Amino acid sequence: MPASATPRKKYDHLVKLLLIGDSGVGKSCLLLRFADDSFTAAYITTIGIDFKIKNTVVDGKKIKLQVWDTAGQERFRTITTAYYRGAMGILLVYDVSEEDSFANVTNWMSQIDENAGEGVKRVLVANKCDVPADERVISEEQGRGLAEQYGIPYFETSAKNNFNVEESFMQVTRDVLKDMVKEKGEGEKEGLKLGPEGGGGDGGCC
Amino acid sequence: MFSRRGSEIAVHQVSCIVHRTVVGPDGVQVWEALDSGEWAVLRLFVEKVEDGESIVRLMSHVDGSTEVGLDELLRLEGQWWVKDDDWVEFYKYSSMFAGGEGDTIYGLAFANKEQCSATTGKILSCVAGTAAGSRDSSRPVSSRPISINPAMARPESSRKINQAPLDEGASNRSLQSQKSISRMPSYKTRPPPPPDSTPPRHKCDSVSLVPPVPPATPPAPVPTAHTPQPSQGLVRRGGDGEGVGGKVRVSSFRRPSGTIESSVSRTLTDSDGGSSSHSLVSGKLSRKLSLASFTSVENMIMAATDVDGGGMEIEDAMEAEMKKIEEGTETEAERISRMSLNTGREGSKGKEGDGGGGGGEGGVGGGDIEEEEGGEEEREVKNEGEPLTGSQQQSENGISLPTNVTKGIHVVYNEERAHYEGLPDGAEWKIMNKQFGIPIGAVPKTTVKGYEERIPAVLEMMKKYLIEHEGIDVVGIFRLAPDKDDCLWAKQQINEGEFNGCSDVNIVANLIKVFFRELPVSLLDMFEDKDICKIADMEPGKVVLDEVEKVCGGGKKGNLALIYWLLDLMSTVVMNEKVNRMSAKNMAIVMSPNLYSISSENPMAALTMSQKVADFTTVVLKSRLGVKWGYGD
């Protein structure tokens, strides 16, 4: 296992994030906004899984973020759940104008429990908060309440208006890093904890 | 009487018992129930009779278990019919069952022998599958395969006979004789009058019954045979029945005509031991049955199934069998004398008696005991005399042939709403409405204009619902996920035939996807990966559809009609894409993962393939849009 601070690397940490949630809630748009700072109103469905890379700096460390964007289509889950294991952080997205996507958060949570690693960091993202008030069906209180139930951070976002997108991604990144540093400390003592690069080589990425 | 109108469906109920056959030294064959005495109930839903074809849906259900088997729809070139007489002239090949209503005969008629044979086997395998699934595998008897095909189960000698060609005269004679046989003991019918004389034991006309054994007669070595055991599965009776039955044995069987003695004897000489069950047998005497009625029916069916003109060989066959038997294939069963066959159904079937099918229910209902008791002495009796002891062997496990046929109820399949109407209460009936997760062939279908094959009625129902509720105007229809619990609830409603609409059209759109997703064999599975990849790279157009049809064997295989039906549904959505934003590509992406089973375990490979399938679906959908609907990008 390569040490995380190997100088030849262009980054200090590789963080693998995963976007999940119902079809059509805006996962791909959030990623597009976050990685490319753009937005498209085109109605595009993700096939299976897609990913983007974003380099950033957190607390002076160079971080390479590898964000996997999954298809919300249920049938793709056999494929997408395979990617849960490698994920260090998961953004669970719902659409504030789609009641079902909120109701299904519970199901996505159990998907995480079943498929993701134990210490995976989660954040609940309420997307499309730019919609007119009369189209919004899930209130902030509802979303926040649910997030509290799970004990995870909550963000209202709008990929369209670029609201809170960066913040939500950075929140989960920081949470991951926090554990990494901690584990690294323990790992050095115990010599068995998986370093941050542990899952870095198997994603088929650049 | 079975009506041929529309989708009215006659439901016939057939009982079979999971049994083993044992043969004694005197050639007497006795069937006994397996350990738990499973009864299998087979229900035949005769869905359609048109143009000389019947579509029969089979449902098998092992009593006391929750398992219900649904078989593929059988498309019969023959017809299921119920007739009192005069059928002989019309049907050469037939399986029939003694009726539950007096002399009424129920039967399946076929265009040829093969079909007749295959269908009977299928009926039985349907039951056998269910029965096998429900049995405790730890039991010795269960570890052996159940023989379901009578033709296969019979000894070589009679098989040979059965393969002899049928000649017209023989067939008529055989049917005549079957007819008379069919009036032999059944649950419902009165036993036939005793014969004028007792025939020789291996040539008796029917089931041989040993009259009630006097106390002095050495009966079965295990006295518990007389002990009432009401709690036991098979012998569901008040406890009085055990003593009633005479010593019933099934002997070699011969039809009256004497010339077409085909299936006759199910005397199954044991080839592979079965000693493991020996102790079991002796311990379970009270559950043992020698199924006189079954045998008569069985023989009848076998006669029908394997009608042949090989009468002259019968004698030889019989001789051979007898010889084998005398050489020591005695069986435990010889001791089995108590029979409670007819009462076995007690209690379990009472609730089914409400269907209004005439007296049929009674055949499996409360009438059994008295009829058996009353009729016992009248039955054709053959006194085998000798006590049954000695080294006895189990012969063969099996599923009895259908018997105890009743026309229990009359239901209607409402194709519009994709459910049966008039089913009695009870979970084992509800399952008939199951629509999801069963093979396409087993899903009830409806005729849809414009398609050569019938389309699963539930799909057409959901499509109509979707369109009537303006689902194609909903942004992201088929893409957006409905609430999972609501969706499951609606699915259950459909599966139970109780769907009355739902709160969200996305549910119905999703359930259409779910229907395809849960097919045991996916819609596009006859396309190989290379077909998918090839078509995925083609330009949309008629040539694409030609290629699809080619893979589908020109419609002969692979559900081409259903593929087109689905493409047209998708087209309907896409042609409204300005409103619902579902482009052909979007539509294809969300539908395609439900249509093809990706074999690869490797997520990367699976992803690549699923992208190919999405491309494939896009190309095919665009082709259909252009060719049939004149809709282009």
UniProtKB/TrEMBL annotation, chain A:
<dbReference type="InterPro" id="IPR027417">
    <property type="entry name" value="P-loop_NTPase"/>
</dbReference>
<protein>
    <submittedName>
        <fullName>Uncharacterized protein</fullName>
    </submittedName>
</protein>
<dbReference type="GO" id="GO:0003924">
    <property type="term" value="F:GTPase activity"/>
</dbReference>
<dbReference type="Pfam" id="PF00071">
    <property type="entry name" value="Ras"/>
</dbReference>
<dbReference type="InterPro" id="IPR005225">
    <property type="entry name" value="Small_GTP-bd"/>
</dbReference>
<keyword id="KW-0342">GTP-binding</keyword>
<keyword id="KW-0449">Lipoprotein</keyword>
<dbReference type="GO" id="GO:0005525">
    <property type="term" value="F:GTP binding"/>
</dbReference>
<comment type="similarity">
    <text>Belongs to the small GTPase superfamily. Rab family.</text>
</comment>
<keyword id="KW-0653">Protein transport</keyword>
<keyword id="KW-0547">Nucleotide-binding</keyword>
<dbReference type="GO" id="GO:0005886">
    <property type="term" value="C:plasma membrane"/>
</dbReference>
<keyword id="KW-0472">Membrane</keyword>
<dbReference type="GO" id="GO:0015031">
    <property type="term" value="P:protein transport"/>
</dbReference>
<feature type="compositionally biased region" description="Gly residues">
    <location>
        <begin position="196"/>
        <end position="206"/>
    </location>
</feature>
<keyword id="KW-0636">Prenylation</keyword>
<dbReference type="InterPro" id="IPR050305">
    <property type="entry name" value="Small_GTPase_Rab"/>
</dbReference>
<keyword id="KW-0813">Transport</keyword>
<feature type="region of interest" description="Disordered">
    <location>
        <begin position="186"/>
        <end position="206"/>
    </location>
</feature>
<dbReference type="InterPro" id="IPR001806">
    <property type="entry name" value="Small_GTPase"/>
</dbReference>
<keyword id="KW-1003">Cell membrane</keyword>
Automatic annotation (TrEMBL), chain B:
<feature type="compositionally biased region" description="Acidic residues">
    <location>
        <begin position="368"/>
        <end position="378"/>
    </location>
</feature>
<feature type="compositionally biased region" description="Basic and acidic residues">
    <location>
        <begin position="325"/>
        <end position="337"/>
    </location>
</feature>
<feature type="compositionally biased region" description="Gly residues">
    <location>
        <begin position="355"/>
        <end position="367"/>
    </location>
</feature>
<feature type="domain" description="Rho-GAP">
    <location>
        <begin position="446"/>
        <end position="628"/>
    </location>
</feature>
<keyword id="KW-0343">GTPase activation</keyword>
<feature type="region of interest" description="Disordered">
    <location>
        <begin position="130"/>
        <end position="287"/>
    </location>
</feature>
<dbReference type="InterPro" id="IPR000198">
    <property type="entry name" value="RhoGAP_dom"/>
</dbReference>
<dbReference type="GO" id="GO:0007165">
    <property type="term" value="P:signal transduction"/>
</dbReference>
<feature type="compositionally biased region" description="Pro residues">
    <location>
        <begin position="211"/>
        <end position="222"/>
    </location>
</feature>
<dbReference type="InterPro" id="IPR044785">
    <property type="entry name" value="RopGAP1-5"/>
</dbReference>
<feature type="region of interest" description="Disordered">
    <location>
        <begin position="325"/>
        <end position="402"/>
    </location>
</feature>
<feature type="compositionally biased region" description="Polar residues">
    <location>
        <begin position="389"/>
        <end position="402"/>
    </location>
</feature>
<feature type="compositionally biased region" description="Low complexity">
    <location>
        <begin position="139"/>
        <end position="148"/>
    </location>
</feature>
<feature type="compositionally biased region" description="Low complexity">
    <location>
        <begin position="265"/>
        <end position="284"/>
    </location>
</feature>
<protein>
    <recommendedName>
        <fullName>Rho-GAP domain-containing protein</fullName>
    </recommendedName>
</protein>
<dbReference type="Pfam" id="PF00620">
    <property type="entry name" value="RhoGAP"/>
</dbReference>
<dbReference type="InterPro" id="IPR008936">
    <property type="entry name" value="Rho_GTPase_activation_prot"/>
</dbReference>
<feature type="compositionally biased region" description="Polar residues">
    <location>
        <begin position="171"/>
        <end position="183"/>
    </location>
</feature>
<dbReference type="GO" id="GO:0005096">
    <property type="term" value="F:GTPase activator activity"/>
</dbReference>
<feature type="compositionally biased region" description="Low complexity">
    <location>
        <begin position="223"/>
        <end position="235"/>
    </location>
</feature>
